[in-house]
Amino acid sequence: MSWMGPREDAENAFKVRLSLRTALGDKAYAWDTNEEYLFKAMVAFSMRRVPNREGTEISHVLLCNVTQRVSFWFVVTDPSRNHTLPAVEVQSAIRLPLVAVSGGCSSLRMNRNRINNAFFLNDQTLEFLRIPATLAPPTDPSVPIWIIIFGVIFCIVIVATMLLILSGIRQHRRKNKGPSEMEDTEDKWENTVKIENGIPCDPLDMKGGHVNDAFVTEDERLTPL
Amino acid sequence: MKVQAVSHLRFYIKVLKEQMMKGSFLVPYIIMLTVEGMPLLYLELAVGQRMRQGSIGAWRTINPYLSGVGVASVVVSFFLSMYYNVINAWAFWYLFHSFQDPLPWSVCPLNGNRTGYDEECEKASSTQYFWYRKTLNISPSIQESGAVQWEPALCLILAWLLVYLCILRGTESTGKVVYFTALLPYCVLIVYLVRGLTLHGATNGLAYMFTPKMEQLANPKAWINAATQIFFSLGLGFGSLIAFASYNEPSNNCQKHAVIVSIINSSTSIFASVVTFSIYGFKATFNYESCLNKVILLLTNSFDLEDGFLTVSNLEEVKSYLASAYPSKYSEVFPQIKNCSLESELETAVQGTGLAFIVYTEAIKNMEVSQLWSVLYFFMLLMLGIGSMLGNTAAILTPLTDSKVISSYLPKEAISGLVCLVSCAIGLVFTMEAGNYWFDIFNDYAATLPLLLIVLVEAAAVCYLYGLRRFESDLKAMTGHALNWYWKAMWGGVSPLLIISLFVFYLSDYIITGTLQYQAWDASQGQLVTKDYPPYALAIIGLLVASSTMCIPLGALGTFIVRRLKRRDTASVA
Questions:
Q1: Could you write out the DSSP letters of every residue in B167-195?
Q2: Which residues of B touch A (CB under 8 A)?
Q3: Which residue among B116, B169, B307 sits closest to A20, beta carbon to beta carbon?
Q4: Whole-model pTM above 0.90?
Q5: Is B402 within 8 Å of B396 (Cβ atoms)?
Q6: In angstroms, how far is CA A160 from the centroid of its own chain?
């Protein structure tokens, strides 16, 4: 269907491009007049949400130049069919949010989503060539994740370093005390050895060894000859 | 075993990072290994085992005029430790950022009014943008140094703390950590091998790696790169090999050790390069296919062809048909059509450290469960880097802790702490906006030329100053094995000649190109541009090379003067 009208229509016309095969692969449906009707219905629906345009009907949306791609041009005319609606209005309609921006939903593009969903497509496969899609803002957490992980590992390393340094200092202190203690025990050893005339059998006695009387008697039996 | 472990950990970062992205990498590598790497490794191990001292003492024993060689090794190790830990800092940065979905380098950030993506990111790729803008925040040239970036600075401090933690207790504890850091990367490499070989397009990369290219074999640069890579991978000239070998038993068969270590080194590097090239092939194939898809989309949209009509197989015919049927429209569209070629994708060589971070992240972001692969990869990179740092710092700390003067004043924890603190403070220079350019200077000049000279002097000293026959009889008395003619031929003739020829190539390269140049990132174009170094950067390069190489003649001069004075003293006394 083509429209005859003043040249300014070209300014208010939008080119739409669909990539059905790319989006749906084998499940791609054929683009026929029924689908075109649905498209007109969706555009009319979007226009009806604009204040002062609640009376938009499907017949006010005109499609033109459908190619194999699939791509086509469309305009929205006003009820009198005399002139086309300015592009800005149509653009804002397509981009209009479905509900007022409330606490939960911060997407500004729900109308566009609605149209996409009606055709099982997305922003890349259903393109309105003069209406740039506002890209979804990336969700930035308040504290970047990497700092959290960095903080954890940093604390672990510092704690481990402190522990090692402290144990190193303790070892040093023990070594310093150690030689003086060693000297005391050595004196003790020397004293006991002196008492026993240098025979170091003292450790055996100190360990509480018992003399086995049975052995002694056997020796006494065997020695005299 | 300790020597083996230490030797392994040396090479990985270099091999993985600076892989020769030309297909004929293997041939020069293997040849250089057998002709240069193995003989010189055996030489250093034998010297250490025979002299039973660290590098400074060992060379002084061989010939008193050579005490400068050991000092030069320590100076080179000091420079290396200064700039090397920055790589670990970057690995930490990427590791911490791998815990997000989606990975931050896989999507471009939005521009101001949210209608499109950031301009710089569009022109370059998202991985390059993340590296150059988010990680480095690089300035357009080396003159504009900018301020210290606090994020990389924090990561650098963490990296140094980790190194300090590992070397705190001295070489005994370092040895245990080294086993861990050397073995774990093997596990990750095996996992990556399995994953890499099953990737789509991996075979392209492998085919590229194994086909020798004759014209590149003729290029001396390939041989030079292979030689310097062997040096780094085996750790020749750093003095750490001598130090570790000095702990060996005198009867230890160091020839067997040298051969085993070299073979393990080279087989691991081939293993690592198989992994690298399969991932590289995946990345190249992916880019090639998305390039083709872009061309298809462009043609489909411009000519309103049916969606799905244009495929890869009929692309060329359709293009020629369109050119003939709609010549005017085709000529409008033609400038935007890129010539996609798999070869050119495989040949894109990324300079320096960018390789490890840009190429791999680009491949990882296209894999499934990319967070897991990313964490694994950067954890492995970190292990390798920390392992290398441990070897480096051990080479610096051993002479310091051995010297009676210093160790009587300070306990060894304090000495290690001081060294780490000083290196960290200097390393903050590399976290400035122009820091990566300074890093490239250090990377290219601080270690390559001095190491060549040190190893040359070592080989020449053992063969000609000490005497090859004397050394041969020493070895025979020590180990009980006679010296094979192959080693004699290599030490005496081939290896020194090869090093001299490498020197000649480097110098002729410098003289031919006139001045030294570097690659700077141009944000407006989204790609690297070549620029000349300013004079003060050239002066610093000269200083870097001179400060380590001058140690050798200065050491000889110092010994000469001391001897002269002693002779005068004894003469006057007598």
A1: HTT-HHHHHHHHHHHHHHHHHHHHHHHHH
A2: 92-93, 96-97, 99-100, 107, 109-110, 114-117, 154-155, 158, 161-162, 164-165, 168-169, 300-301, 304-308, 411, 413
A3: B307
A4: no
A5: no
A6: 30
Contact B110 A150 (CB under 8 A): no
- Do B352 and B19 touch, CB atoms closer than 8 A? no
> What is the distance in angstroms between the Cα of B361 and the nearest Cα belonging to chain A?
17
CA A222 to chain centre: 92
In the prediction, which pLDDT does B171 show?
65
Distance CA A192, CA A202 (A): 7
Q: Which residue of B has its CA nearest to A157?
A: B162
Tens digits of residue pLDDT in A54-73: 888 888 888 888 888 788 88
Write down the pLDDT at residue B337: 79
pLDDT at A1 over 50: no
Q: Is B520 helix (H, G, I), strand (E, B) or coil?
A: strand
Taking contacts as CB-CB distances below 8 angstroms, the residues of chain B near A167 are none
Q: Do A146 and B162 touch (CB under 8 A)?
A: no
The residue ranges of every structural domain in chain B are 9-572
Report whether pLDDT(B327) > 80: yes
Task: Specify the pLDDT at position A160.
Answer: 92
Q: Is residue A20 part of a domain?
A: yes
Residues of chain B found within 8 Å of residue A20, distances taken between Cβ atoms: 307
- For residue A198, being part of any structural domain is answered with no
Interface predicted TM-score (ipTM) of this complex, two decimals? 0.77
Structural domain range at position A34:
14-128
CB contact under 8 A, B116 and A149: no
Structurally, chain A folds into a number of domains equal to 1
Residue A53 lies in a domain: yes
* pLDDT of B315 higher than 70: yes
As a whole number, mean pLDDT of residues A132-158 equals 79
Residue B233 labeled ligand binder:
yes
| Three-state DSSP string of B281-346 | HHHHHHHHHHHHHHHHHHHHHHHCCCCCCCCCCCHHHHHHHHHHHCHHHHHHHHHHCCCCCHHHHH
- Is residue A76, in this structure, part of any structural domain at all? yes
Q: What's the rounded mean pLDDT across residues B5-12?
A: 46
